[in-house]
Amino acid sequence: MAELGVADQLADGPLDTEELATRCGAHAPSLRRVLRELASVGVVRPAGADGYELTEEGSVLRSDVPGSIRSSIRMLGEESFWYAMGKLPETVREGRSAFVARYGELYEHLGRHSEVSRLFDDYMTARAETFTRNLVTRYDFTGVGTMVDVAGGKGSILATILRANPGMRGVLLDLDHVVAHAKELLAAEGLAERCETVAGNFFDSVPEGGDAYLLASILHNWGKDDAVRILRNVRQALKPGGRVLVLEVVLPDDAQPHLANDLDLRMLAIFNGGSERSREEYAELFSLADLELEGVTELGAGACLLQAKPV
């Protein structure tokens, strides 16, 4: 349903199966069987002799609504990500990612496949929606004249911060193939004059002179040594009195059900070394990079903003 865009086609009202199949580029008899199953789980319902309409539950699969999960579902079903989870037993047996063995490192894989890269960027934007919205209402950005978004992707988080703080300027660092997408989004948001995009690799260096450096869903991709290396580069570039802001889904301290536990298995499947971490583990990373954890802001959806300062 997500991949074919069924919910988008049903957004304006019910359609018969033949018409819906034409709009979705699908084989009508096959789609009819899928719609029957979709109706049984409540995301569409029958309308007329051979038609269907969208339910409230199914509306989250539209691409144009707040809280849409369409890009998330499409990302989970993308061939290489599906392979990663399907090969999880092999990864657990060997202690090495079967995904990496077949496709290479994730960001190299994305760099070679532009459609997968764009889908991944859309997924990350949708995934960040809840905690990005809370970020600008729950965290005080007073004193931040320049925000450097390290590996900022399409720039959706930075754009939200800049809109909420009109006096702030931004710098977005990411790889070559990602920066082009960021320029598009920032221009569309009317922020091109307030935000510079820089192509580079955070293992080499990050842009200097920021009052705050944001690392959103970055450190969990890397093992301990690499994560500390990234933080040290940020520490070196930071202005006196500056702050480091790490936005991550943080593991709970007990065995309660938590999104971070599910995400940690996906990190296990897709990366060699990447993992979700507890607050104590992030505090340890900061300490190894001559930084000190000084505050944690809950952002919802399992995410936290961890603020660190130079020691």
UniProtKB/TrEMBL annotation:
What keywords is this UniProt entry annotated with? Methyltransferase, S-adenosyl-L-methionine, Transferase
InterPro entries documented for this protein:
COMT-like, COMT_C, COMT_dimerisation, SAM-dependent_MTases_sf, WH-like_DNA-bd_sf, WH_DNA-bd_sf
Is Membrane a UniProt keyword of this protein?
no
Q: Which domain of life is it from?
A: Bacteria
Task: Return the Pfam families for the record.
Answer: Dimerisation, Methyltransf_2
Q: Name one GO biological process term.
A: methylation
Residues of the O-methyltransferase C-terminal domain: 87-289
Family annotation (PROSITE patterns)? SAM_OMT_II
A GO molecular-function annotation: methyltransferase activity
Q: Which residues form the O-methyltransferase dimerisation domain?
A: 2-61
PANTHER family in the record, alphabetically? O-METHYLTRANSFERASE CICE, PUTATIVE (AFU_ORTHOLOGUE AFUA_4G14580)-RELATED
- Which named protein is this? Methyltransferase
